[in-house]
Amino acid sequence: MVPSINITSQEQELEHLVTVVSKLSRLPAGIFSPAEKKYLKEQVEIHKKELITFNRLDYLVFVCFVRDEKDRSKRLEACRKAGDKIATALAERKAVRVALFDAEGLCDEVVAVAEGISLGSYRFLKYKQDKESDSRLEEIQLYSKALEEREPAGGEIRGNSPGSRRASQSYSVGNINIILDAVARCRDLVNEPSSHLTATGFSDEVEQMAREAGAVVEVLDKQKIEALRMGGLLGVNRGSTEPPTFTVMEWKPAGAKNMKPVVFVGKGVVYDTGGMNLKPGDSMLNMKCDMAGAAAVAAAVYAIAKAKLPVHVVGLMPATDNRPGMEALVSGDIIRMHNGMTVEVLNTDAEGRLILADALSYAKKFDPALVIDLATLTGAAVRAIGKYGSVAMQSKAAGDIELLRASGFEVYERLVEFPMWEEYGELVKSDLADLKNLGPAEAGMITAGKFLEKFAEYPYIHLDIAGPAFLDKRDSYRGQGGTGYGVRLLFDFIFRHFAI
Ligand code: BES
Ligand code: ZN
Ligand code: ZN
Predict the structure, then answer these.
(1) Where are the beta strands (DSSP E) in 74-198?
(2) Burial degree of 469 (CB within 10 A; 0-12, 13-18, 19+)
(3) Of 180, 181, 188, 153, whose CA–CA distance to 167 is shortest?
(4) Most C-beta atoms within 10 A of its C-beta, which of 159, 243, 352, 493?
(5) How far apart are CA 377 and CA 469, in angstroms?
(6) Helix %, strand %, coil % for the chain, to 5?
(7) Ligand nearest 466 Cα, by number?
(8) Which of 80, 308, 353, 478 is catalytic?
(9) Which atom of ligand 1 is nearest to the CA of 438?
(10) What is the CA angle 265-453-185, rounded to 5?
(11) With a 6 A CB cut-off, is 286 part of the ligand 1 pocket?
(12) Ligand nearest to the CA of 190
C-alpha cells in the first residue's frame, strides 16, 4: 500500500507538518519562534540546507526550501529527495499521517515533495514475520489553495473526457496517486523472488492488474506460443521446468486520440542464471530483476488505463526463466524466430534479445505508430553509464526519442541516446544463420540494440534499463531493490504527447 495523497483545507489536530517555501519571508505565521527563524535563515543562507527539521517532542516540523534553480528538472528532483528524507524521519516516528503546506502556490514542487515521501516510504516486507509494516504512512494531506484551484471540479481524474483540452500540463492529484501505486506494483513484481514469481505467476499478476484497471488482457500459454512459432521464447525456456507465457495487455478507449497504438514491449526473464553459459560468481546475484522491463510495461499500461488517458496503448510481455537443464539451448544451436529469421545462439546468457525479438515481430500485427521496449539487457549498458539512466537507441523515431528524453528529465528517469550505425549491425551477422546473438566484446549494448532492430519494422525506441532498474543499495526515494524505472517515464510520455 502506498500512502494516499489528498487535497484538504480543513485544519486538523497538530501533526507532522511540512512547509514548502522558496522565500523565508513566506513562512506561514505562528509556527516558528524568532530563534527558530534565525536558525532557519542560517541553515538556508550559510549552510545551503534544503531541508530543515524541528523536533517538537510529539511531532516534527520540516521546512523544505526550494532554491530558485533555473533548471526545472533539478528543482523537482531536489524536492523528491527532500521528500525521501522526510519519509525516513517519519518512518522512525511510525507516523501514519503528514500534512504538506503550500504557502506560495508552488504546486509542482509540493507534488514532487509528496512524490518523494510516497516513493521513499516504499518497503518490500511481504516475507518479514516481524511486521514493521503495521504502522506505515497512510496519508499525505496537501494544504494548497493553488492545487485546489488547479484540480478539476469534483476531483474527477483528468483525461477522463476525451476531446477536452486541459489548461495545465500537470497531473491531477488523482493521477499522481495512480502513478505512485503503479510504481509500487512494479517494484513489488521486481522484488518478488523467482521462487514465488514464475512466468505463469507473473502473467497471473498482470491479469489481475489489467482487471483492476479495466484493460483487456490475454495470456498466451505454451501451446499458443508454439503455434506462433516463437522460437526465441521457446528456445530460452528449454532449460526450464516452468512453461513460458506471453502476456498481451491492451487499453483501447473509445475516442482514443491516436489512430495507431503505441506498443510497449518488456523483457520478462523472471530469473536469469545465464543458462548453459552459467553466470559466474556474484554476477547471478539479483537476477530476479531481469523481468523489470516487463514489470514496468505492465505497471505503465495499468496506470494509463486506470487514469483513463485517451490513448490506445498495448503492452507485450514475453516471460520465462533462463536456466541450464537437460534440454537447454547450448552454444552453437540455431533457432527459428517468430518472423522466420534464423539465429545462431552463441551465448545462452544473451537470452533477452531472443525473447524480445519474438515480441517485436509480434508487435507488427498492431500496426503500431511507435514501439518502445524496456529491457535489463546488457551489463555493457551498466558499465557505460551506471545506474543513473537508461541507454536508449532509436530507429525511425528521432522525434519521439526527443519527447521521451524530455519526459525523462521531467520525472528524472533519464535516458541517453546511443547510435544505431549500420556498422554495428554487421557485427551480429552469422556465417551459419541470419543473425547471431553475440557480438564482440566492445559496445555490447549497441550490438544488442542492432540485433533487436532487425525485428522492428516500425518507428522503434529501445531502452536498456539494466542500470537503473535495480539498486543493490538504497539511493534516496529510488529505494533498494526494484526502482520502478520506466513507469513514470512511460506514463509522462503518453500523458504529455499523446493524451493532450
Ligand atoms: N540480464 C542480463 C543483463 C544484466 C546485467 C541485467 C546486469 C542487469 C544487470 C543479460 O541477459 C545478460 O546476461 N547479458 C549479457 C550479454 C552477453 C552474454 C552478450 C551481458 O551483458 O553480459
Ligand atoms: Zn543473460
Ligand atoms: Zn537477462
Answers:
(1) 97-102, 139-143
(2) buried
(3) 153
(4) 352
(5) 11
(6) 40, 20, 40
(7) 1
(8) 353
(9) 19
(10) 15
(11) no
(12) 1
Residue 103 near ligand 1, beta carbon < 6 Å: no
**Cα dist from 190 to 124, 169, 292, 299, 433, whole Å:** 10, 30, 6, 11, 34
Is the alpha carbon torsion for 407, 409, 413, 416 positive or negative?
positive
* The one-letter amino acid at 244: P
Q: Quote the ligand 3 centre to 378 CA distance (angstroms).
A: 7
Residue 39, judged by CB atoms within 10 A of its CB (0-12, 13-18, 19+), counts as middle
Show the cell assigned to 250.
491492451
Nearest alpha carbon to residue 320 among 379, 196, 235, 193 = 235
- Cα 153 to middle of ligand 1, angstroms: 49
**Which residue(s) pair with 262 in the sheet?**
313, 370
For the chain, state the CA radius of gyration.
Answer: 24
pLDDT tens, N- to C-terminus, the chain (500 residues): 899 999 988 766 778 999 999 999 999 888 999 999 999 999 999 999 999 999 998 999 999 999 977 899 999 999 999 999 999 999 999 999 999 999 899 999 999 999 999 999 999 999 998 866 566 899 999 999 999 888 875 444 444 444 333 434 789 999 999 999 999 999 999 999 999 999 999 999 999 999 999 999 999 999 999 999 999 999 999 999 999 999 999 999 999 999 999 999 999 999 999 999 999 999 999 999 999 999 999 999 999 999 999 999 999 999 999 999 999 999 999 999 999 999 999 999 999 999 999 999 999 999 999 999 999 999 999 999 999 999 999 999 999 999 999 999 999 999 999 999 999 999 999 999 999 999 999 999 999 999 999 999 999 999 999 999 999 999 999 999 999 999 999 999 999 999 98
Is the Cβ atom of 379 under 6 angstroms away from ligand 1? yes
Q: Bin 92: left if φ > 0, else alpha if -120 < ψ < 50, else beta.
A: alpha
Order of all β-strands in the sheet with 333-336? 333-336, 342-345, 435-436
Are 435 and 428 contacting, i.e. CB atoms less than 8 angstroms apart?
Answer: yes
Which grid coordinates are listed for 201?
A: 505467476
- Name residue, grid cell 493532450: 500
Give burial (CB, 10 Å; 0-12/13-18/19+) of 496.
middle
- With 0.85 as the threshold, say if the pTM is over it: yes
**143 vs 130: CA distance, rounded Å:** 35
